[in-house]
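Action item from last week, closing it out:
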Amino acid sequence: MNDAIAPGAEEPPEAPRPRRKGIYILPNAITLAALFSGFYGIVMAVNGRFEAACVSIFVAAVLDSLDGRVARMTNAQSAFGEQMDSLSDMVSFGAAPALIVYMWALKDMGKLGWIPAFVYISGAALRLARFNVNIGVVDKRFFQGLPSPAAAALVIGMIWVAEDWGLRGGERPVWLAWGAFGMTLYAGLTMVTNAPFYSFKVVGARQTVPFAVIVAIAVAMALISQNPPLALFGLFCLYGLSGYAVYAWRRMKGKPASVIAISTDEPDEKGLHQ
């Protein structure tokens, strides 16, 4: 057969070129800013400026809470953004807090100080990996285990309070180093538990709330401004215990304590979701 086009006949249209996949700038820029805050915290800790390091981790936590909301509000969600957010969280709320607390109090313990720091960074990695895998089956009202920003706030908040009280360098008592040891272990292990921690995701920007809620937020902001290190550390301590309280309350009421909404088909994983 002759494939030549007859005179006067229209040429077949060319196949459209595949469209290049772009990257949403706004949410990913916020994620990069959170990543920089975590990196800045590490640099400040290396230079012995632990108070600045603590502030930078809290700034990273604020930015981390914004990138996902901005992506949803601007309809700019993407698989790339989700992976970028997880990698940023691993640095800002996994590696950075572990290194900061190690340099602040744990390095003087020798190899014993490695234990809580490594447990913490391992817990953060395992928690983020489990979150990515179970994102479609977990009750959105709760986190499965302590979220990594809150875990970082526990460890870093304790350091910030001590620095604010003037407990620096050789002025730190021995019990404070052991307190850092215990708090770091607690935060690392709580990240990989099945205790349900309220996620606050059900409160959206377009949902109405009673007027008293706005008044309570204003009062809370005023109280936090009086002593930010102590107030934030106290709030996150309460939050860090709330998951176990909810778990115990559900058990007492005979309700399922798991936050897994849909069970998996893997027999080996059945015990993880009870």
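Closing note: Strands lie at 142-144, 196-198.
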